[in-house]
Write a structure and sequence with these properties.
The structure holds two protein chains of two kinds.
Chain A lengths: L1 E6 L3 H12 L4 E7 L2 H10 L4 E4 L8 H11 L4 E6 L4 H9 L4 E4 L3 H13 L7 H17 L10 H11 L4 H8 L3 H14 L5 H10 L6
Parallel strand pairs in A: 1-2, 1-3, 3-4, 4-5
Helix pairs in contact in A: 2-3, 4-6, 6-7, 7-9, 8-9
Chain B lengths: L2 H22 L10 H38 L15 H63 L3 H28 L2 H6 L1 H12 L5 E6 L8 H22 L3 E8 L5 E7 L11 H12 L3 E6 L5 E7 L2
Parallel strand pairs in B: 1-2
Antiparallel strand pairs in B: 2-3, 3-5, 4-5
Helix pairs in contact in B: 1-2, 2-3, 3-4, 3-8, 6-7, 7-8
The chains are: A alpha/beta, B alpha+beta.
């Protein structure tokens, strides 16, 4: 059973998230906090396995709380659940020790999957961040900077370019006359090949690429 | 000497000379003027008028300079001042005009400042309310829908899934509106992150935005960061909309005097003599607020560059 601590300043959202998570057989919400400092207090009293934090909260934001939590509880996995769709928040979350980043508008679809990914210590990539990472990768490959040197197939290279140009999975499927499922498989293969499926490696890469400050 | 007395004495001098010439020159005018006499008198009058005109022109030239400045002055490019040359009243007039410009520029800057900060505050408030109220409620609705859909019979479930998708779309839309109103990333993570995100937003298949944000920048006040951000945003918008550029470079660096310099340069068509639109005027107004210097230039081979220097 994965024991989860939930922090969001909106009671309605907390209730919704709790009901979704509790309905999964292996997930259980053990505590709810209305802000970052309450989350710290709850985690100290009864350490959970996973913390799901909103960013914009009064008193202490989710990012500040994540930094504190990953310092005081190194084994704790952290997920950010937020309204902000900006890859800079994703990279900042990564920097302060979060394993994943879920948009509230996709929470119904992605949250449960992200919880499982976080427990496997895989980063749960937010789509905007994936595009930014791939763009950076292509730019570095073009200028000859050091990049993870793993063979990417021609088809994958095509997909890579289209992702960098900001096309959605559906667009890419139509452009290349392949199914959405195939595009998703290519994307996931590429990420694994570029080393972006491993949280530590991803963090190191983002720092090297100048996407976040060390 | 006052303007009145200067003009009066110039005229008096000319008339006196003319009168003296008439009195003491060895000439007479017949009762019915002969042709030669008439010609001499006409020539004399013409000389008098020309002398008068030249003297007046010299005496009034500072006024003409003043008029030129008055017709071309632009409050968005402050600092144009006349040297108070000339005599008496004219020098006073120029000094008074300069003082009026000082006052107008200060007033213009402070009223533009008030308007802009009121606008920013309002945007901030609306963005926050969209995020905190509607956004959160819709999130809760989305999560509830998922649960209800799971527990419903098949035909209803399909319909509920559609409702879920439309809820998701409106949540995305609200987020986009809030972000356009006020970028949360600027308040939470600072200027460097906000510019990185901005460069990412404007990068498309046809336009590559290369950003270079130096890491050892001095700490800037919030209002300076906001101006730098808005100027970068406006410049990128112009480059994306009007320039047909393929590359834009966005550079934020430190200046020698400890201030910072923002440069946005594209390789597009350039301004081609187009008059400054509302966008560029808006950038000038924002630059004035923080005492920064804005220049918008077009290269010989095309391309536009916007530079904003913020003093330390």
């Amino acid at each position: 059973m994965i024991r989860i601590l939930l922090a969001d300043d909106h009671a309605l959202v907390r209730r919704g998230v709790r009901l979704i998570l509790d309905s999964e057989p292996d997930l259980e919400v053990i505590g709810e906090a209305a802000d970052g400092s309450e989350a710290l207090a709850l985690a100290a009293a009864d350490p959970p396995d996973l913390a799901v934090l909103d960013i914009a909260m009064p008193r202490m934001t989710g990012l500040q709380a994540a930094r504190e939590l990953s310092r005081s509880h190194p084994d704790l996995r952290i997920l950010i659940l937020t309204m902000y769709d900006n890859e800079q928040f994703f990279f900042e979350a990564l920097r302060v020790g979060a394993a994943g980043y879920v948009l509230k508008s996709a929470a119904d679809r992605d949250l449960v999957e992200a919880c499982h990914a976080a427990m496997r210590d895989e980063p749960f990539l937010y789509p905007g961040a994936e595009t930014a990472l791939i763009r950076e990768y292509l730019e570095r490959a073009r200028t000859g900077a050091d990049i993870p040197d793993r063979a990417v197939t021609e088809r994958e290279e095509e997909v890579l370019k289209l992702v960098a140009e900001g096309h959605s999975t559906k667009d890419i499927a139509e452009l290349l006359y392949i199914s959405v499922k195939t595009v998703e498989r290519h994307r996931s293969n590429i990420l694994a090949k570029l080393g972006l499926k491993d949280r530590q490696e991803l963090t190191r890469y983002a720092i090297r690429a100048g996407l976040i400050e060390p | 000497m006052s303007l009145f007395w200067r003009i009066f004495s110039l005229n008096a001098a000319v008339l006196t000379v003319a009168a003296l010439v008439l009195l003491f020159a060895p000439v007479t005018v017949s009762a019915t003027a002969r042709l030669a006499e008439a010609l001499i008198i006409l020539a004399g009058t013409a000389v008098t008028l020309v002398a008068n005109a030249v003297m007046l022109r010299v005496g009034l030239s500072p006024l003409a300079r003043l008029t030129r400045v008055m017709t071309t002055i632009d409050l968005l490019r402050p600092g144009t001042r006349l040297v108070a040359r000339g005599q008496g009243e004219i020098a006073q007039l120029i000094t008074a005009f300069n003082a009026m410009l000082d006052r107008l520029e200060t007033e213009r800057a402070s009223s533009a400042g008030r308007a802009l900060s009121a606008q920013e505050a309002e945007r901030h408030r609306i963005a926050q309310e969209l995020h905190d109220e509607i956004g959160q409620t819709l999130t809760a609705v989305l999560l509830d829908l998922k649960r209800v859909a799971k527990a419903s019979p098949d035909p209803v479930r399909d319909q509920l899934l559609q409702v879920q998708e439309s809820t998701r779309n409106s949540l995305d839309e609200i987020r986009r509106i809030a972000r356009r109103l006020r970028p949360g990333v600027l308040d939470e993570l600072g200027l460097a992150s906000a510019l990185r995100a901005l460069a990412g937003e404007f990068t498309t298949a046809g336009l590559a935005v290369r950003r270079q944000v130096h890491s050892d920048l001095p700490v800037l006040p919030k209002e300076v960061e906001l101006v730098l951000y808005r100027v970068a945003q406006e410049s990128l918008t112009n480059a994306a909309r009007h320039s047909a550029a393929q590359h834009v470079d966005l550079v934020l660096s430190e200046q020698n005097d400890g201030g910072v310099r923002l440069c946005v340069r594209d390789d597009g068509r350039g301004l081609r003599g187009a008059p400054e639109g509302a966008g560029i005027r808006g950038m000038r107004e924002r630059a004035l607020l923080i005492g920064a210097d804005l220049s918008v230039e077009s290269g010989v081979t095309g391309g536009t560059s916007v530079q904003l220097s913020v003093p330390a």
